[in-house]
Design brief:
Strand content: 15-25%
Distance between the termini: 69 Å
Number of domains: 1
Order of helices and strands: EHEEEHHEHHEEEEEEH
Largest sheet: 7 strands, mixed
Number of helices: 6
Helix content: 25-40%
Shape: globular
Number of strands: 11
Strand order of the largest sheet: 3-2-7-8-9-6-10
Structural class: alpha+beta
Bound molecules: zinc ion
């Protein structure tokens, strides 16, 4: 193999990040002695992963990629083509991983397996809550790929371990994508604000999209109330169903077959997040102006 034929794209859990260990488990006070996959291992039974060493050219059509896009001045764009099935972070304790986290996965697996396979299914309000709770856990694990720019706090995570329900300041949507059934993706958009001059920027909102097969799950968490203006524009709006807050009694899944290419789904999510951020900033500026006059 010549040098040129090998495309070296470092995975986020390698190199710089491979050694990242928080002082304690992100959910409890025990040592973080366990590795957790970003996409749960059970999904590999449905979509067999590519060999770990396979790094494909970045291609949205292949759909094995990860991206982060931090808005405002902390800008960082990374897109990598490889199978995200292998991504792991060493941030949780064995007790958490094999205990309540495993139970939560077991509870979500039957319903999520259908959605990943793209099988029609009736989602009860309870199913929707199960998926939203699962997505909350996945978002908190996923954001540890960028540990210095995490959005959720340790108290939030302790609360989640105790209550195992989605946060009030979060939203969860599902979209059905019947394209490449083997595609997987992790996308994160985050925004950082500087509270006072010289103080470190704090990530105050983020939006994490997971795509596993036919399932696209979108998670928004924000400590900026104005980000509640987050909405999807057409045509994406017609193919996205909100399941938290206020899950409907019965959601006939899929509500509509999404004809939009997946690149447009991700771009639509990014656009929604950026526009909600701009609206939040304008609202904050207007508040400052009002206080000055
Ligand atoms: Zn723990």
């Amino acid at each position: 193999m010549t040098k040129r034929s090998v495309k070296r794209i470092p995975a986020p859990n390698r190199g710089k990040r491979s050694g990242y260990r928080p002082p304690v488990c992100i959910f409890c006070t025990a040592p973080p002695d366990s590795l957790e996959h970003i996409l749960p291992v059970w999904t590999q039974e449905i979509i067999p992963p590519l060999p770990e060493a396979t790094f494909s050219e970045y291609g949205r059509a292949d759909g094995h990629y990860i991206a982060e896009d931090l808005t405002e001045s902390l800008v960082s764009n990374r897109e990598r083509g490889f199978d995200v099935a292998h991504l792991r972070v060493g941030v949780v304790s064995t007790d958490c991983n094999t205990g309540w986290m495993s139970q939560l996965e077991d509870a979500a697996k039957p319903v999520l397996s259908s959605l990943i396979r793209g099988e029609p299914r009736l989602l009860s309000a309870r199913d929707q809550m199960t998926i939203s709770t699962w997505m909350t856990l996945r978002a908190m694990v996923s954001e540890m790929l960028w540990p210095d720019r995490a959005c959720t706090t340790q108290p939030d995570r302790h609360q989640f371990r105790a209550q195992q329900q989605p946060f009030q300041n979060s939203k969860v949507w599902l979209a059905y994508y019947p394209g490449d059934r083997n595609a997987k993706a992790v996308h994160r958009y985050a925004t950082a604000h500087t509270a006072t001059k010289g103080a470190p920027r704090q990530v105050v909102a983020h939006c994490i999209t997971l795509r596993i097969g036919a399932l696209v799950a979108i998670y928004l968490y924000s400590v900026v109330p104005a980000l509640n203006t987050f909405y999807f524009e057409p045509p994406l709006a017609a193919f996205v169903s909100r399941i938290f807050p206020l899950p409907v009694d019965r959601l006939d899944w899929p509500e509509a077959v999404n004809p939009i290419p997946d690149v447009q789904i991700f771009n639509g999510v990014r656009k929604a997040f950026k526009e909600a951020n701009e609206a939040a900033q304008q609202a904050a500026l207007a508040g400052v102006r009002r206080r000055r006059t």
